[in-house]
């Protein structure tokens, strides 16, 4: 026992040593890889599940927003490499389109969360019209609007020049976009963000007031629509929207005013903030949604389903007899050999 404790302490100290010595870029890359796999696993679990609840408008919108979150993670990885490695002007078009795509994904994320909020709002405040509003056709129209508006909002970035500063050793360092383009695209993103925030705030207030009234009256007609976990999720999404809007405003102001110090300060933190923004949705929904937890648990239970082989008397005919028993938590298959 004493040896085990000493070994554990040495292992822990070694792990902390290498963690401190590990470059921040590598540590962040490992974190982003984990986020990428976990988010993808969550989306695939929802998309491939046969449960009826995952065919609802809420989860379809979550998938559409999750796809843009994953794309945002990949494009921000390219921009982070440019910042850490100091890529030359040869990669300026890659950087330009990565910036455009990243900002488009951010706008799509804001719109997606606003539509998800409206979905929860209509499930409580427009309960009798919910099925008419969230038809399959309307859901796909909303997703098309989400993607279309986000692309149109950043299309002007394609005309921008990528600005660099040349160091004494001849290398170039990325400074940002053309101030005029940054001001225009930043203003568009700011308007969309304010509309999403104000609209979501109003719906959240009305939603929770109505929900509290239903709880006091013990109205059970809301059924599955009144699931507390999904309501708490939209509060988490709204908080993320506010944080990312503030960061986007600072980024636009620094680019438009050519404030290189502010741009550097924001740019050094934008990648960690994006990682945080992408991490919260799958983790919070897994924690708050009982349906998603059961679906994930079912996947692992199927993978670990035991097969027991037991010999029986030769009096039985048929050579090999397979007996399957069902349990609520797992499935067990017993093979009888004669």
From TrEMBL:
InterPro entries: 7TM_GPCR_serpentine_rcpt_Srv, Nematode_SR-like
Record has Glycoprotein as a keyword: no
Coiled coil: none
A GO CC term assigned to this protein in UniProt: membrane
Gene3D superfamilies: Rhodopsin 7-helix transmembrane proteins
Subcellular location: Membrane
Membrane topology summary: Multi-pass membrane protein
Domain of life: Eukaryota
UniProt protein name: G_PROTEIN_RECEP_F1_2 domain-containing protein
Source species of the chain: Haemonchus contortus (Barber pole worm)
Lineage of source species: Eukaryota, Metazoa, Ecdysozoa, Nematoda, Chromadorea
